[in-house]
């Protein structure tokens, strides 16, 4: 005769290691991964701070995303300790996790003990509808959307790369978008700078971009900087932003930006385009290489796009700008593998993507030292650029 459900659960629970909430509370953050196996609505109503969310129904398909190493100490919890015991059994018996336990009494007992519970900020009814397709993606969910709404992202340039990035980040609900650009909309921009329109020729790009962003999503707070980024203003402008999107088209500013962001430890999603070719990487200070690790000296002047007007396929900045927007969302939400230590090359004519590994340079003049050691005088040191361009002929 088959055992009853209650007997089955009792048998499983006798085989699974169960730990008391006090033990979990003591070891939280000490190499132990705490996983909440409840449903999304339960998670949204409040969960243990620092826990990862893997609903039991998705355990097999998503546990590796939350806990890569099978030797890691994993403690599962649910509402009462029953679902987590069953899930712990599955992890151990079927998925090869060796050091798994279930928290006794679940979050109910945890709360009774007076331990901390984190309740995600709630969205308005309109926001729930606007972002419903994000909320449905398990890797984003309500929590990820809340992070996006709280995020501050700075776009350097409202041009070819900045246009699509700004439009999609606005649509995605990034709460604050800073835009740095000192230029006005020109007829020759409209072939690719899709945030601007024909009737806004002559208008400041920051104002034109703001108008488009607001029309898409009034939730977004736009902060405008109608200026050029230079050594005198960079620290003031970039401080406080979570991620910087670099669409800058000249090398001196790239070096300056690199040095300032390493010092302030702000990740930069950097892209460049020329003709049919695009490049993309994420420079996350002290986690991966910085721009100077990659380019200790400027590339040959004839390859420097800012040495004059160059042609570019109009849709290419769209492709690269949206790859940038994707990396921004991953960094803000904290999902996936950002392009840290990797350089992605896109060649549109052949329709090929190539990836190069890039490493931190232990001798790097900037990121080999602690951030507080990088002085104002050293930032953005670069050879005379006009001479540099002139040398290219
Ligand atoms: Zn470096």
Provide the spatial order of strands within the biggest beta sheet.
8-7-6-9-10-11-12-13
Looking at the chains present, what oligomeric state does this protein adopt?
single chain
| Small ligands present | zinc ion
Q: Average pLDDT value?
A: 91
Topology order in helix (H) and strand (E) letters: HEHEHEHEHEHHHHEHEHEHEHEEHHEEH
Helix count, DSSP H or I runs of 4 or more residues:
16
Point out poorly predicted stretches: none
The level of helicity is 25-40%
Main features:
13 strands; 5-stranded parallel sheet; alpha/beta; 393 residues
SSE map:
Layout: H1 5-15, E1 18-19, H2 21-27, E2 32-36, H3 40-44, E3 52-53, H4 59-66, E4 73-77, H5 82-93, E5 100-103, H6 106-112, H7 125-130, H8 132-135, H9 141-150, E6 152-156, H10 162-172, E7 176-180, H11 205-216, E8 221-225, H12 234-238, E9 243-246, H13 251-264, E10 268-274, E11 277-283, H14 291-294, H15 316-333, E12 342-347, E13 352-357, H16 385-392
Parallel strand pairs: 1-5, 2-3, 2-4, 4-5, 6-7, 6-9, 7-8, 9-10
Antiparallel strand pairs: 10-11, 11-12, 12-13
The structure holds zinc ion.
Zinc ion (ZN) binds next to helix 14.
